[in-house]
DNA sequence: GAAGGTCAAAGGCTTACATCA
DNA sequence: TATGATGTAAGCCTTTGACCT
């Protein structure tokens, strides 16, 4: 897979230098960087990817890229009918520069930007377009009024939460149309509705896991108690056997066959291999509550 | 003011599906 | 027509960071 290629001919480019200024990133929105084979930019500040490109100060940056990135992007843009030069959605320099800011954001931005859609639900095309627009413009709102780009924590109002909860009760996933409608109703961005549902599903799952965990703990306790009880019972039977002067066959009705090991309970040894009916099982027989039927055998 | 909890959001990964050669 | 490669959408998981107690 090209690992044996001469590195000098690989087209890879490694640049160590200072990051772009605000002006650079905002006035010349570059096409998004690519991941995997087409990774073309890597900064040593993975955190706050959307903000790093907006700093007004210069900072060290590490750039790893393909020299053929541009041509690749042109191909890709053409293929996807994207025109990065005319800011397709919302005239959003933040979004566009964010592509440049972080390789981590690239894949996500490319997919989450969803500029080109081959949606299975074709009836939702307008919804999709609106959503794509929204996705592209959504991060504009991350920007404060004063132009800084600090990530603000959104707090949903009680009404919004209630409505979302009600909607979640009806269906815990949303199709694009539902999402758009709900977002409009709540005065939120579809992406926010989507995220809320995602986190809500995660919380539900976590809750269920906790419930399951509690249930299993109880099961464990019950089985432990049962195990103790059966061990005690076994000990009593052994004591009883030793106290008996001679073998006395037990009534058939009291004998039971363990389905896991085909041994007959009540003191009869397995397979008749033991000469003495009083002898113990020759090897230890561990109890596994998930595979064994009887804790006594 | 530090610590811990909550939760919106970001980024990465996986999967299913569509398209194309 | 069948098949593998590739791209896209969408969901899940993990982590981050703002905010609150």
UniProtKB/TrEMBL annotation:
Keywords recorded for this protein, A-Z: Coiled coil, DNA-binding, Homeobox, Nucleus, Transcription, Transcription regulation
Subcellular location as annotated: Nucleus
Compositional bias annotation for Low complexity: 18-28
Any one GO cellular component localisation term in the record: nucleus
Region span, Disordered: 1-35
Top-level lineage group: Eukaryota
UniProt domain Homeobox: residue ranges: 147-207
The keyword DNA-binding is assigned to this record: yes
SUPFAM superfamilies named in the record: Homeodomain-like
Transmembrane regions: none
Major localization listed first in the record, in broad terms: nucleus
Positions of the DNA-binding region: 149-208
Annotated Pfam families: HALZ (PF02183), Homeodomain (PF00046)
Keyword DNA-binding listed: yes
An MF annotation (GO) of this entry: DNA-binding transcription factor activity, RNA polymerase II-specific
Coiled coil: 213-243
Family: Belongs to the HD-ZIP homeobox family. Class II subfamily.
Protein name: Homeobox domain-containing protein
Organism, scientific name: Lupinus luteus (European yellow lupine)
Lineage: Eukaryota, Viridiplantae, Streptophyta, Embryophyta, Tracheophyta
């Amino acid at each position: 897979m090209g690992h044996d290629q001469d590195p000098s001919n690989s087209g890879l480019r490694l640049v160590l230098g200072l990051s772009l200024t605000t002006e650079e990133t905002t006035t010349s929105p570059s096409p998004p960087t690519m991941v995997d084979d087409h990774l073309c930019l890597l900064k040593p500040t993975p955190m706050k990817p959307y903000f790093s490109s907006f700093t007004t100060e210069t900072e060290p940056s590490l750039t790893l890229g393909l020299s053929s990135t541009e041509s690749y992007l042109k191909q890709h843009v053409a293929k996807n009918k994207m025109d990065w030069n005319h800011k397709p959605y919302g005239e959003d320099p933040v979004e566009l520069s964010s592509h440049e800011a972080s390789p981590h954001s690239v894949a996500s931005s490319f997919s989450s930007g969803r500029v080109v859609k081959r949606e299975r639900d074709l009836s939702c095309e307008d919804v999709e377009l609106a959503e794509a627009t929204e996705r592209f413009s959504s991060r504009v709102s991350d920007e404060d009024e004063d132009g800084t780009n600090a990530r603000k924590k959104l707090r949903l109002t009680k009404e919004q939460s209630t409505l979302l909860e009600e909607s979640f009760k009806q269906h815990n996933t949303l199709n694009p149309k539902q999402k758009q409608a709900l977002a409009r109703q709540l005065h939120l961005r579809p992406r926010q509705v989507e995220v809320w549902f995602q986190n809500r599903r995660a919380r539900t799952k976590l809750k269920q896991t906790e419930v399951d965990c509690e249930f299993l703990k109880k099961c464990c306790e019950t089985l432990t108690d049962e195990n103790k009880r059966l061990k005690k019972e076994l000990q009593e039977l052994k004591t009883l056997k030793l106290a008996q002067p001679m073998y006395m066959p037990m009534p058939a009705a009291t004998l039971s066959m363990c389905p896991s090991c085909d041994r007959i309970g009540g003191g009869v040894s397995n397979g008749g291999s033991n000469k003495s009916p009083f002898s113990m099982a020759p090897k230890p027989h561990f109890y596994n509550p998930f595979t064994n039927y009887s804790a006594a055998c």
